[in-house]
Amino acid sequence: MFADYTGVVLDLEEGDRIAEALGTGKAVILRNHGLLTVGATVEEAAWSFIAMEQACHVQVMAEAIGTPVQMQPAMAALTASQVGSAAVSKAQFDMHWDTLVADDSSVLC
Questions:
Q1: What does the pLDDT look like over 81-104, one tens digit per residue?
Q2: What gap in Å lies between CA 26 and CA 63, rounded to an integer?
Q3: Rounded to an integer, what distance in angstroms lies between the CA atom of residue 83 and that of residue 99?
């Protein structure tokens, strides 16, 4: 989590601090602001954002009904190795995009 957000990024120092918080990761939560995701492609970054937003929603819902059960680190690592690659993210986004377009072709405008 990036807790030192000071507003709209208008200077290089703020961007550098966010990049440092991100490190080698794919996403960071900007406290009091929202999510930021990155990727080697637009599709990868977009899918990471969609997946993270869904995960945050599930987390909030789980916390609303009690104390969530934490995933074991080995299972988290296995899952990341199975679905955490750039290629899988692109494939997931492409399927999502195709569904959006099929449901409403105006998204192409």
A1: 998 888 999 999 999 999 988 888
A2: 24
A3: 20
* Coil, helix or strand at residue 97: helix
Burial class (CB in 10 A: 0-12, 13-18, 19+), 12: exposed
Residue 18, CA atoms < 13 Å, CB-side half-sphere: 23
pLDDT over 70 at 8, yes or no: no
Token code pair at residue 92? 């997931």
10 phi, psi to nearest 5 deg: -115, -5
Q: Are the beta carbons of 96 and 54 closer than 8 angstroms?
A: no
Neighbours of 9 (CB within 10 A): 14
What's the predicted TM-score (pTM) here?
0.79
Tell me how long the chain is.
109
- The CA R_g of the chain, rounded to the nearest whole Å, is 16
C-alpha to C-alpha distance for 34 and 18, rounded to whole angstroms: 13
Show the tokens assigned to 71.
């995933």
